[in-house]
Specification:
The chain has 436 residues and is of the alpha+beta class. It has three helices and 24 strands. Strands 2-14-18-16-15-19 form a six-stranded antiparallel beta barrel. A five-stranded antiparallel β-sheet has the order 7-6-4-9-12.
């Protein structure tokens, strides 16, 4: 009986070993012979002849920018009064000179009359001083003081009349109304004090001295020529232009020396297919430092009125600081260095390769400038490396585990009495046959 068991065990081991060999052979056939495309693509080098040609070479600085309207006016009433009409609301588009709001003129009329009375009194005082003067130093000093009072009174009249004319506040520029901070029945307080500020339309931003410290813009229309305050925060109206744009960018200290006002800029704007053009308008001299890196502000003036621009949209900006045309160039891959010299390879008359020494200039993209050694139309050899597939593959049906010949593994083909648990490895018990 023991001899029978030993013979069975030996037979089982032989069958198991044969089965393993069959499985390995099938895997090799399936993954290598039937799918040669799975092998790594082999590089293939070819040599091409390229003519030296004239190109445009440019040097540029690339950065990111944020679009913003170049016209943003904050306007408010120059005079005091109660708002009697508000003619626009946020989101409206207005034209330059269009009425925005109106205040009552009761206080404005009184201010004009009072200013005119003060002026008349100052003029009369000056006339009396001139008539009574005997030419003494004291009389001449009195006349000078009275003359100054006349000038002050005249200035007050001018301001009062301007405030009266500005009882109807008008838009200093065409654009989109983004804020309306007044309403009918609200009292507003004007101010003639102002502070310098920025405004692309030529106006001067002012800061009012009223209760809320509102801001206003000046320069384009009666009533919008001085700052004012309202009982609400901010200016009475904020108007943003939609026809003129700027892009705000920053550059590093290494790029700053290359740039100058007037440099051409090409903007790639998110959501737009066409390139937007502009020029450098200003370059800031005071840097801001972040994590030890200094950057300088650059203002870019957008050319024309491109459609599809929006406030706050990001753009990639290429600031071109040098551009040369008709520059002789060849692909950078055609130039190599031999013994410290730049050389290219050309095909000789007899078909042999000839090495030619050249002098190179600036490199831009995949092209390099040739300043001597070649002429336009001269052919140079460029080696191009391409990856090619070693095969097209076989059956792409996605089936796996097939044996040579395409047949699938069939467990019924195992010898009678074969027990897979007798094989070593995962899933098997290992060791010898079971003792029953």
């Amino acid at each position: 009986m023991s001899q029978l068991l030993r013979r069975t065990s030996t037979r089982t081991r032989v069958v198991a070993g044969a089965l393993v060999l069959v499985l390995v052979a099938g895997a090799v056939y399936w993954f290598v012979l039937r799918h040669p495309s799975s092998a790594a693509a082999a590089p293939e080098a070819t040599t091409q002849s390229v003519a030296a040609s004239l190109s445009t070479v440019q040097q540029s600085v690339t950065t990111t920018a944020t679009l913003t309207p170049s016209i943003q006016e904050e306007v408010a009433f120059a005079g005091s009064g109660t708002v009697t009409a508000v003619d626009v609301q946020a989101g409206d588009t207005v034209e330059e000179g269009q009425a925005l709001a109106t205040i009552d003129t009761l206080q404005l009329d009184a201010a004009v009359l009072s200013a005119r009375a003060d002026l008349a009194e100052a003029q009369a005082t000056l006339a009396d001083s001139q008539d009574a003067s005997d030419g003494s130093a004291a009389d001449l000093a009195r006349i000078s003081a009275d003359q100054a009072q006349v000038e002050v009174a005249q200035s007050a009249v001018t301001a009062a009349e301007a405030a009266l004319a500005g009882a109807t506040l008008t838009a200093p520029a065409a654009g989109l109304v983004t804020e309306v901070n007044v309403s009918v029945g609200q009292a507003v307080t004007g101010s003639t004090s102002s502070a310098s500020g920025s405004g692309s339309s030529g106006g001067t931003a002012g800061t009012g001295s009223g209760a809320t410290g509102g801001t206003g813009a000046s320069g384009a229309a009666p009533g919008a020529t001085s700052s004012a305050t309202t009982t609400s925060s901010g200016a009475a109206f904020v108007i943003v232009g939609t026809d003129a744009w700027e892009a705000m960018a920053t550059v590093g200290d290494a790029d700053l020396p290359h740039l100058a006002v007037g440099n051409q800029v090409e903007l790639t704007v998110d959501g737009l297919e066409d390139t937007v053009f502009g020029t450098v308008a200003t370059i800031g001299l005071l840097p801001s430092t972040t994590s030890g890196t200094a950057t300088y502000p650059v203002t870019i003036s957008v050319t024309g009125s491109p459609e599809g621009l929006h406030d706050g949209v990001s753009a990639d900006a290429e600031i071109i600081y040098e551009r040369r045309t008709d520059v002789l160039t060849v692909p950078t891959a055609a130039v190599r260095t031999v013994d410290g010299e730049s050389v290219v390879t050309q095909a000789g008359e007899d078909g042999e390769e000839v090495t030619t020494v050249v002098t190179v200039g600036e490199t831009t993209g995949s092209l390099v400038e040739i300043t001597s050694g070649l002429e336009e139309g001269d052919e140079v050899l460029v080696q191009v490396v391409q990856r090619t597939e070693t095969g097209t593959g076989g059956d792409e049906s996605g089936q796996t585990g097939q044996m040579p010949g395409g047949g699938s593994f069939d467990p019924s083909q195992l010898p009678e009495g074969f027990d897979p648990s007798q094989m070593g490895g995962p899933g098997g018990q290992g060791g010898g046959p079971r003792n029953g």
